[in-house]
Write the structure tokens for this entry.
Amino acid sequence: MTVASAQRHKVIGDVHLLLTDSQGRVLFGRRANTGYEDGAYHLPSGHLEAGESVVAALVREAKEEIGVTIDPAAVGFAHIMHNSASGGRVAFFFRVELWEGEPSNMEPDKCDDLAWFDFEALSDRMIPYCREALHHIAADRRFSIYGW
């Protein structure tokens, strides 16, 4: 039997955007110059900031990373993953099919490519927890645990 620690764990929260086009493809950026998984494709994503809801964080990250404007009412929940990275993170995945603007690389210092991928034909080079979350999303599983 596992005994819980008397210390409360502080969880890092991440948001991940499945920006989905009319063909069902999802937009990914290729990481560059970050020191973590450079060369791997990943969803537009970021950390929650203090006092920010997960939807507000997603809307903010979409504008900062790919220059699109998302109405919070257009955000649909897709998946949540409890990931063991960094001592424990919670990753929220949301699907958005309606937005304003043309996606463009707003962070060329951290991303060197934007590309649309079908769920059935994802890049060979992806961050592993993201690939696993996408498999769960494709199977309509709303929750997963990774790395524990």
